[in-house]
Amino acid sequence: MHLILPAALAVASALLVATGTLVRQRSSTPSGGITRRWWLGVAIAAVGFFLQAAALSLGTLLLVQPLIVLSVLFALPMEAHLDHRRLSFAEWKWGIVLTLCIAAFVLITMPTPAKHTLDPGILAGTIVTVVVVLAGLVIGARLVSLHYRALLYGSASGLLTGVQSFLVKSVTTQFGDGLARPFTHPEIYLILVVAGASVVTQQLAFAAHDLQTSFPAMTVMEPAVAMALGVLLLGERANVDVVEGVVVGVVLLTMGYAVVVLAKFAAERETEFETHPDHDAPSPALSPAARAPDR
Fold first, then answer.
1. Where are the stretches annotated Disordered (predicted)?
2. Which DSSP category does 293 fall into?
3. Please, where are the H alpha helices in 211-241?
4. Can you say whether the dihedral through the CA atoms of 233, 165, 15, 5 is positive or negative?
5. pLDDT per residue as tens digits for the range 75-97
6. Rounded CA separation 237/216 (Å)
7. Could you say which of 15, 190, 234, 245 has the lowest number of CB atoms within 10 Å?
8. Which stretches of the chain are assigned E, i.e. beta strand?
9. 170: nearest Cα among 237, 238, 234, 236
10. Degrees to nearest 5, angle at CA 38 with 34 and 43
11. What global pTM score does this model have?
């Protein structure tokens, strides 16, 4: 039961995030403006975020974050239906691979929580580390070509979104000590700062005009960072032996590659739409620009 309920909430969150993204995209005007229906998409995505927070309050980052990646998969058939097209063989193949990898990871690891409190000294050290890495990515982005600039800014955005998920997990556990308890700790306020910085770096990545690079970087970095922080700082553990650990490593690499491939499909369709704005098919559901308000 400790896995079923948070897993169900995470899957529902992924579905709502994909739906909210799709509604917002199909409700935008050709000039980039927004309509009343666009706000419906925002509301749907917001419900998805709260479901993610509920899932994190009951389950581990190791369980919830891989399941949130299913939003990439859920958007595929919805987008294809609205575009009146069939999914390609490659999309089906990598969608199935992604699903199997997520299922295998959860079933093999059976993630369990350990300590839930975050020591202030560890939090401060984490903040310093994140700032140093982030500064390195941002400074490096100014010294390289547009292609690598998109990669570095996209990685920075994914890093920050992963940290945001980690902070949300930390805050949700504090509510167990009273509704006012989280407001006496810095994590809840850091979420606002991190979320704002994530949006800024995401927009800088978009400005590099290389979605095929920035979008996969964002998509992969978020769960990787959140899961790593859950293990290192919250003491979350995967119940595996040495052999199972090797298998899990292969599964995670395959899952990451599948996400990159699916994200590139979405980015390529977005680029094609921007190049041919009179095309019948609207912009794709997985455009990173439309995902910005989700987190």
1. 273-295
2. G
3. 211-233
4. positive
5. 778 877 877 878 888 888 988 99
6. 27
7. 245
8. none
9. 234
10. 140
11. 0.77
